[in-house]
Amino acid sequence: MFKRILVPTDGSAPARRAIKRAVQFAREQKARVIGFYVGPPWQLPVYSEYVPPEVMSPKEHAAAVKKTAARYLGAVKKAAAASGVRCKCAYVMGAHPYDEIVKAARRYRCDVSVIASHGRRGFSKLLLGSETTKVLAHSTVPVLVCR
Fold first, then answer.
1. Sign of the C-alpha dihedral, residues 146, 88, 94, 136?
2. I need a surface site. Which of 7, 14, 54, 61 has the fewest CB within 10 A?
3. Rounded CA gap, 140 and 105, in Å?
4. What are the residues whose beta carbons fall under 8 Å from the beta carbon of 84, sequence distance 6 or more?
5. Is the distance from CB of 109 to CB of 79 less than 8 angstroms?
6. Which residues contact 135 (CB under 8 A, 6 or more apart)?
7. Which of the 8 DSSP states describes residue 141?
8. Are β-strands 4-8 and 112-116 bridged in parallel, bridged antiparallel, or unpaired?
């Protein structure tokens, strides 16, 4: 039934648990996993009329995001390889991770997304929002949430 499973990760402990569950699910379904990471976009930090002297260039920022993506997506590749599941990984930079995750599910023609929830509640959820909640609200494919 499921052939492509999107697994967004931010490198956190809940995301690592979601990766394990997604790979297990992929093995049961004889599906492939698509690991996905959204890095922050480059921004010039400007404080009033002051620009800090040691600002990371866009090229340096892109290299740092690529390095972080390789580390986080390496966990997806490792779990998939250990279970004999086919795997593909990708990353992008974007200001709104939920939007990039929804786009990736469409771009890679995924049948389902398996995403972690950090379990924020109450006031912290109200202030910080939840990328998982936003994915649930905007996704056109089913989303399995791992707590």
1. negative
2. 54
3. 8
4. 27
5. no
6. 8, 98, 101, 102, 113, 115, 143
7. S
8. parallel
Cα-Cα-Cα-Cα dihedral sign, residues 79, 69, 126, 144: negative
Amino acid at 118: H
State which H helix or E strand residue 87 sits in: strand 87-93
- Number of other CB atoms surrounding residue 4 within 10 Å: 20
Entry pTM: 0.90
The mean pLDDT of the chain is 91
Between 3-12, 118-127, 132-141, the lowest mean confidence (pLDDT) is in 118-127
> Per residue in 62-113, pLDDT tens?
999 999 999 999 999 999 999 999 999 999 999 999 999 999 999 999 999 9
Angle at Cα 101 formed by Cα 99 and Cα 131, nearest 5°?
70
DSSP string, 115-127: EE-----HHHHHH
Rounded to the nearest 5°, which phi and psi values hold at 41? -75, 160
